[in-house]
Amino acid sequence: MISLHRAFAFFVLAAAASLFLFSQPTEATKGPLVTHKVFFDIKHGDQELGRIVFGLYGKTVPKVCARSLPM
After folding, report:
1. How far apart are CA 54 and CA 13, in angstroms?
2. Longest Cα pair distance anywhere in the chain, in angstroms?
3. What are phi and psi of 56, to 5 degrees?
4. CA 21, 22, 28, 29 torsion: positive or negative?
5. Under a CB-based contact definition with an 8 Å cutoff, are residues 32 and 24 in contact?
């Protein structure tokens, strides 16, 4: 029969191992850096519906795309 102390120690060890194995590094949660923003103004007839803003990741796109961006 397993004693209460051994069962508790096994539970703590299993919890610590699962936290270690399933945690992610902080760099993965930050995401890429937005370097430029572009926008689209949306209209339907004469009515202004709003603006959509897109963030561009300048450090993760090919160099060809960077030529068309204003610096």
Report:
1. 45
2. 79
3. -105, 135
4. negative
5. no
43: pLDDT strictly greater than 90: yes
Q: DSSP labels for 5-69?
A: HHHHHHHHHHHHHHHHHH---HHHHH-PPP-EEEEEEEEETTEEEEEEEEEE-TTSS-HHHHHTS
In the predicted model, what is the mean pLDDT of residues 10-31? 72
Amino acid 26: pLDDT: 55
Residue type for 62, please? P
**pTM score > 0.70 for this model?**
no
Helix (H) or strand (E) holding 4: helix 4-22
